[in-house]
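Appendix B. Extra example for self-study. Work through it before the problem class; the solution is given directly after the inputs so you can check yourself.
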Amino acid sequence: MDSVAGSAPRELRVRRARRMTREEKSQFIRDSLMSAAAMTVGEQGYANTMVSTITARAKVAQGTFYNYFESKQALFDQLLPELGKEMLQFIRERIANASTALEREEISFKAFFDFLKKHPEFYRILYEAELFAPTAFRDHMDTIARGYVRFLRTAWERGELNIKDESELEPTGYMLMGIRHYLCMQYARKDGKSVALPEHIVEIYKRLITDGIFTVPETSASGAAKARQSRAEGGGGGKGV
Amino acid sequence: MDSVAGSAPRELRVRRARRMTREEKSQFIRDSLMSAAAMTVGEQGYANTMVSTITARAKVAQGTFYNYFESKQALFDQLLPELGKEMLQFIRERIANASTALEREEISFKAFFDFLKKHPEFYRILYEAELFAPTAFRDHMDTIARGYVRFLRTAWERGELNIKDESELEPTGYMLMGIRHYLCMQYARKDGKSVALPEHIVEIYKRLITDGIFTVPETSASGAAKARQSRAEGGGGGKGV
Amino acid sequence: MDSVAGSAPRELRVRRARRMTREEKSQFIRDSLMSAAAMTVGEQGYANTMVSTITARAKVAQGTFYNYFESKQALFDQLLPELGKEMLQFIRERIANASTALEREEISFKAFFDFLKKHPEFYRILYEAELFAPTAFRDHMDTIARGYVRFLRTAWERGELNIKDESELEPTGYMLMGIRHYLCMQYARKDGKSVALPEHIVEIYKRLITDGIFTVPETSASGAAKARQSRAEGGGGGKGV
Amino acid sequence: MDSVAGSAPRELRVRRARRMTREEKSQFIRDSLMSAAAMTVGEQGYANTMVSTITARAKVAQGTFYNYFESKQALFDQLLPELGKEMLQFIRERIANASTALEREEISFKAFFDFLKKHPEFYRILYEAELFAPTAFRDHMDTIARGYVRFLRTAWERGELNIKDESELEPTGYMLMGIRHYLCMQYARKDGKSVALPEHIVEIYKRLITDGIFTVPETSASGAAKARQSRAEGGGGGKGV
DNA sequence: AATGAATGAGACTTCATTCAT
DNA sequence: CATGAATGAAGTCTCATTCAT
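Solution. Structure tokens for the complete assembly:
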């Protein structure tokens, strides 16, 4: 399947239907079902997605569904993995030529939202999976987290990270994932549909992950605090001194 | 109601039932229903929570439910607001004597997880509400975000924040909310139940919000980058270089 | 009870409540319930009349209902008899000074519709009773029919009726009742509410009961036919010859 | 469908079930449901007819019901139209060779009761529809009334009617309908079941619609009155003078 | 394999009646 | 007696899954 929810050239395919081998046809139906399910879940959520809706959309009979999937749940369990793989591939291609860790994270961050724009259904498929396809959700989160850990470890070894211990890598990854989710929820959705993330949100994201948010209070009088203080002066923008 | 889902000393109360006035009894039943609903949603999620389960748990007849709530959905819509208010109160009491913004955020952060430990059902009630009580969810999120904005603005005016423009306050709030959610999801849940957040996670959280994660690359050669560089030297801990 | 559904001077009575004896109060509540039931049935029909609606309207508690009536059905069973008696009384007063049978029937006919205008709820109370208070309905119909039989017999003995045998009296009564019902249904109802019967309908009614509808065909060549023929000529109005 | 409520040779059909095509089977089930509903409504009334009763009687699962009808109400709304059409067809066939208007009305009148004997359930289906399928009821009544108007107009144009103005046609139709209903109610029902209408009732009906009931009093001294007087003498049967 | 109708468990909700105060 | 909340039986409808063709 090229794309779970891709609005593939159905007509073309249908016209060729006669020439399809048995296996091709079988594959085509499976894809149709997955695609129909993805679109429906994207629009209505898992809870409101009925087998009858999926099959109607895929233009097959209800019974056919059960020739391809054990149950509705079985399909749900495959939805996120398939689309998730696509997403990872999509992002991977973008970050290929990033030089620094920060740059890479920025590209990845943007790519995520670009993917979402291309696959608006992904938002619900992903975030509702915690409830309706918990295993798939866990796997996906693990995969993403592992990816982060790998990436962060490399960066850390190059001194590009404010991190002391290896054990901080995973939590850091989850924090970044949480940020992504919430910025997505708040700034990349409109009337239940995915839209592009405003550019300035990207900037704010960048600042958080580079500069943090809070300045360390004077009282601690640490070297770090001093450095931060100087940074605040240099960077300007602080309201008072 | 002391607590929506408080596993109050039911037996004791029941024994006193005879002395309850009508109004007290009415209040008691409403509380029982809310409490039963909260517990059930906390354990099974909104989707698997049936009126019959709630009433069985509250030890009343099914019909009684509808003397107190218009519909199952009506109760669902009240679940998060009630518990959410409690949570806010709980946190507010803790942050009363925080001096700096950072300290305040830390206390608030910890308090959230303490509340969760006390009310393990809150996790699902809160995060599944996006699906099953969308209005309540939105309201809650707005409330929290507004709280953050207020708090952050004050901090910002005191120069305790790395923020240039007021418009960054809200996104910043959402990012912090996202972090909280994901740390909660990953580190404060065990077998579907809420557990305490490990102490070291708090530390990592603190670092992120103060120092950020990534160091700015040399190439940009900005003042901020320099400062950061010096900080990295002073603070030590960077593995490489 | 002066009137089942009479919009009696409630306020007045309430003001006097303190002076009511126990029995008066009891009577007042019963009347209120009957009245509330009558209005509700008149507006919504028996099927949609709930005990809670009745008691709310009568401004008493639900439980009070069962101090006055065995069950909802028991009240339903009394509704038609009470209002039916009123109707009969109302009509009886009007026909007191009719001289001929025809005149009497006309007055009675008109009085029925006048009563209906005064008690719009009577339509449903009466005609839905066939379903929801069958015994009361049967009794009512029997009563009306007996009244007709008595009246018709007298008229017949005076030679004012085209009837050969006593056994025709009852069916004749029922036919008149059916006519009344259907003219009522079709011409004295507007948007589910009772309205006045147009005057010309009364005229048509009169003609039917005096002249019949159909002229007897020539072929029978009976004396009656001849007479009728002459009547047709005299009365004019036949379109052709 | 041959007949909505026809107690068709089910067993025979079932034995043939294997040979039924899908469409036939589908039609068979729909018929079974309609038939079961008709019988049940005929016996118990709309109010006491439950989906479970219908499906049990039709020997299908409850869910099957909803493959054929949107809701219970939807079926109710179709019950009268379907059976009503049958009734009209039944009557139409009978009146084909009536020569005079009076004869035609007599045949139609009798045919109605014959139909009722064949379809005892029709009584409740028809007359309870005013409450439980109001639109269908109104439509049916309109149809019947229009039929009457058409028929009466023709008769009137041939001079077979005692009517002066076209506007009297419709009310006349309704009066005849009302008579039919009440004679049916009183004389063609026994223990809630439809039975044949006694022959002498037909005679009484005929007299009413030809001769009317009341004789016009002398005082008016009109030609019509005189004619009627002579008729009364000629026809004999008046009890005395 | 495709079809699409049949199945039936199970959820929500209503409301007459009961009952403790 | 009045109150009004509690009760629970009963009914409608949904939809995942099965099954005969």
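Self-check: Confidence is low (pLDDT under 50) at residues 5-18, 220-241 of chain D. If your reasoning did not lead you there, revisit section 3.
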